[in-house]
Each structure stands twice: as structure tokens, then as C-alpha cells.
Amino acid sequence: MNLVDWIVLLGTMVGIASYGAWRTRHTTKLDTYLKGNAESGWFTIGLSVAATQASAITFLSIPGQGFESGLGFVQNYFGLPLALIIVCAVFLPIYRRLGVYTAYEYLGQRFDGKTRLLGAGLFLLQRGLAAGVTIYAPAIILSSVLGWRLDLTIIGTGLLVIVYTVTGGSAAVSLTQKWQMGVIFAGMITAFVIVLQRLPDGLGFGGAAHLAGALGKLEAVDFSLDPDRRYTIWSGLFGGLFLSLSYFGTDQSQVQRYIGGASLREGRLGLMFNALLKIPMQFFILLLGAFVFIFYQFQPAPVFFNQAEWEHHAAGPNHAIFRGLEVKHAALHRAKQEKIAAWQAARAQGNVAAEAEARVALVAAQRATDEVRVEAKAALTAADPRAKTKDSDYVFISFIVAQLPHGVVGLLVAVMIAAALGSKASELNALGTTTTIDLWRQLRPQSARDETRNVVVAKLFTAFWGLFAIGFALFAGFAENLIEAINILGSIFYGVVLGLFLTAFFLKRVGGTAVFWGAVLAQTLVFVLYAKLSISYLWYNLIGCAACMVLGLLIQAVLPRKSAT
Amino acid sequence: MSSPSDDHDTGLPVFRTWRAVYGLVLGCFVLVVIVLTLFSHYFA
């Protein structure tokens, strides 16, 4: 990165954060601090909901998914539009009618204090753990590729988000997210245009898409019923529906984005905006990754994209093995380029039989280069069993740094940081709010009547969670596949929390004690199944939710009538 | 706070009830899945 990149990066990030903090610095009302500006329209709410879900990992990992596995990951989002319709029709009107600050307040009103505490506790546990991951994940990748110090990257981004989130609360979060999403859209569209421009002359969008298709990167929808397949239309529709319903309907970091606002109508329209936006947006990011893959078919490509990790081990005693793998990969890469040329020539002639034959040879050449990449990962593990062997998260950022012009590099790094700040801000805001409303106010009901004190306490808890996340990110080691780690963590807890809410909405005869113990047993069941089975993690949302509701009903049936409510 | 009648009105042309808006979103979703399936087949 040069001076122009730094000006773009710091100008956008510090500018947006300062603007948010400055505009909301006089927030003293609890309603505004916890729910945001009561005049927010659907567009602000919609962008805020989108920015909360789109973390930095979305823009680092998902192009890498597109590069490595193609478009299939988009199916993960197929349950999202249906879930948002249910949230609009059922969850949102109830939250607004009751005037709650958190989703878990509703559980207290419908059931009892212990069920509210269980819901809030599961949220704090899951989000609190994820808080460290969401700050660490982009920092480790950016620091590795850009040569920044990891600790300073974590502290810098962490403190920036703490400053404006603590200052203006929910109002500052929504305001800054609107501008951050502007930076994200501008950056990703710019990257897509540049990737297309950097493809060989005459290839264009259609040629690149046909080549990506021939290499199996454009299979977006898989109708297979095999439960071992990670992404199919069925796991996306059913597992994704429950994951999205839990996330948008019961996760305070999302609920807080839409329960405020000018009216129920604006909240609903903001959610419907996301229902229409999300799948095309994820498709676009995956397609960008698939096109980066095509770009590297015509350019020298590294055998392993996490170059810092590779060079670190290549400089060790296994130097000859690493260099040998590089030479082998480069030779196979050149051989593959010849196969691509042969396939393109056969296509241009309209010779179907020759095209099919050339495609078989091309796929075999691709498989050979893939095998060298597998060998490279094995060499890393042999050199150091703790070596990071997954490099797909490094593909897009490596492409940005190596291939894009100065200024655009700064803009794309700003996209990553903007996404990190936007999702982190919602997370801290929600953690601070839940701790204040569902824990502190229950323990100190007298103090809770003082509005000014409530705001001060909410600020302190928000700052606490921010510092906790920084500390956790600085001192903990995390799973390598970070986006999956966050999704798996969410799926383990979300199903049961959703079960609590669906029981509250639809099973009127089930009381607090029954649903509480039903949820505890269901959560235990999910832990056991996760340890024993190897099914797609999306299914745990459905299992946890169904187990909580069924067990709640069964316990209600056997409870003595006196303790049944 | 808005009045309940404001909340019942979607404020959108043509799609004046929430049921119609949800129908529109579902229709768009089905269309997107069809387009993605065709996209996959066309470029496969």
C-alpha cells in the first residue's frame, strides 16, 4: 500500500467513524441510545441489517469460496427470504407492540424471569465468543498479507469501533453502517469491473463464465438429497430457513437494527429490502471469486495463496521440497494453459466432439494442479503440524494487493475494514444492551429507574464487551476456517433460542418451567449430536428448535398443574 | 410512533397489502432460484 491507498483507507474509515460519533455525541435518551433514531426510514434500517450480517469475513472468505468451490455456497442463503417474511409477519409486530429493548424481554413477559435469562445468557455466550473471532478473523488475514502488526491491527480496529459505538449507541451504529455499506458496494463493484478488464483480450464475461463452467465453478444449485453434501438446495432451504429465522428473529444484534425506526412499516420494508438483496449480493461476491479463479488461469498463480505462511516454512530445512512443489505447480499450470487454448479453439470452431474431448483434458489438467496444491498443504503440515493449511481466505486479498492499482487497493482494504466495523458495532451494541436490560436492570431495579444512569451503564457495558473482544482476539487461538467457525457456533446455539421464541408465539399452553427445561435438554442434545455426527451444521438449527418445542410440550404434559405455568 | 393504519398501508404502488409484498418477495426468490439453475446449466 502506498500513500494514496492510506489516504483512501484512513479517509473513509476514520471519516465515517468520526462523523458517526460527532452526529450522535449528545445521545442521552435511553430509547435513542438502545433503539436508534426514531425517524429512521426503511433504507437506513435495510442497510443497517445488511451491514450487520456482512462482516469482513464475508468479503475475504466468500470470494475464496467462489475461487475454490464455485457458487454452491449461495444455497446457504436460500432460507433467508422466507425467514425474513416470517420475522416481518410474526416477530416484528410483537416486539414493536410491547416496546421492548431486547428480544429476550419478550420471553420474560411471555414466560418468566429464568427463561428470559436463559435466552439472554445463550445469546451473550454465543455472541461473546464470536466477538473475539469477528475482530481476529480480518486482522490475521490483513496483517499477514499487508505486513501490518497483528496486535496493532486488532487494537486499532477495535478501539475505532468502540469509540463511536459507545458515544452514540444504536443511532451511531445505523448512521455509520449506511456509509460503510456505500464504501462496500463501491469497492466490490470496482473490483468486479477490474477483474473483467484484466482478463485476456476477447475472453469477456461470457468466455470467462463458459471456462469457469467447464471447470465446475458455476454450479449454483444442487438438488442432491445426499445429507453428507454440505451445500444443497434442501440444506439451504430448511437448515438455512431456521438459521436465518434464529439470526434475524432472535439475535439481538439484528433485532436491535429493526425494532426502532419510524414505524412498523419502515422496519418491514427494511427487512424485505434485505430479502431481495441478499441472494443476488452473495451470488455476485461468489462470482467475483470464480472470475478471480479464471484470471489466475492466464497468469502465474502461487501454489499456496497464504504467501507469508508458505515463505516462512519454505525458508526452513524443507526448502528443497517447497521449491520443488513450486516448480511442479508452475509446469502443470503452463500445461493447463495449453489445454485451455485447445478447448477454446474447439469451442470457436463449433466442433462439439472436439470440445468435449478438450474439456476432459482440461478438467484432468485442473485436477493435476489441485493435487499439487494438496501436496503443498501436506508439505506445510509435515514441516509444522500447526501450520495454517487453508489458503482460500487469502485468495481475494492477495489478488487485490498484487493486481489492483493504487487507490483501488486502499478502497478494497477499506471495504474489509468497513465490513468489520459495521458488524462489530452491531455486536457490541447488542451485547451492551442485553447486559444492561436483561441482567443489570433485573439485579438493580431501583437504579434502573434513572434514565441517565441507564445510558451510562449501557455505555460502560458496551465498552467492556469491546475490550473483552480485543483481549480475546489478542490472546486466543482460533479455528482456521473462520467463517465456518462462526456459522457452526451460531448453529449450535441458535436452534434452541429459536425454539424458545416459536414456543412463545405458537404453543400457548406451554409455560415457563416446561420451556426452560425443554431448552436445557435440547441444548444438551445438540452438543451430543454435534460431537457424534458429521452432518451439515445447518441441520442443528432445525434439530435444536424442534427438540426445544417438542420437549417443552412433553414436559408441560407431565408437569403437575400447579407448577405448569 | 406511527398510527396502526399507517402500519397496515405498505406505501407501495400496486402492492398495497403486506400479503402482496410477501408474495412479491417469494415470487422474486423463486425467479432467482430458476435463473441460478438456468445459469448453472447454460455455463456447465
What do these coordinates show?
The complex is a heterodimer of chains A (565) and B (44). Chain A is mainly alpha-helical and 565 residues long. In chain A, 78% of the residues lie in helices and 0% in strands. In chain A, α5 (80-98) runs parallel beside α10. The mean pLDDT of chain A is 88. The longest helix of chain B has 26 residues, at 18-43. With 44 residues, chain B is mostly helical. Chain B has helices at 4-8, 18-43. The model of chain B has no long low-confidence stretch (mean pLDDT 86).
Number of distinct beta strands of chain B: 0
Shape of chain A: globular
Distance between the termini of chain A: 62 Å
Strand content of chain B: under 5%
String of helices and strands of chain B: HH
Task: Round the mean pLDDT of chain B to the nearest integer and report it.
Answer: 86
Task: Output mean pLDDT of chain A.
Answer: 88
Structural class of chain B: mainly alpha
Biggest sheet features of chain A: none
Quaternary structure classification: heterodimer
Topology (elements, then pairings):
The complex is a heterodimer of chains A (565) and B (44).
Chain A: H1 3-23, H2 30-35, H3 42-53, H4 56-69, H5 80-98, H6 103-110, H7 113-146, H8 150-198, H9 204-214, H10 233-250, H11 252-258, H12 264-295, H13 307-314, H14 319-349, H15 352-383, H16 395-403, H17 408-443, H18 451-475, H19 482-506, H20 512-532, H21 539-558
Helix pairs in contact in A: 1-8, 1-17, 3-8, 3-11, 3-12, 3-17, 4-12, 4-17, 5-10, 5-12, 6-7, 7-8, 7-17, 7-18, 7-19, 8-12, 8-17, 8-18, 9-12, 10-19, 10-21, 11-17, 14-15, 17-18, 19-20, 19-21, 20-21
Chain B: H1 4-8, H2 18-43
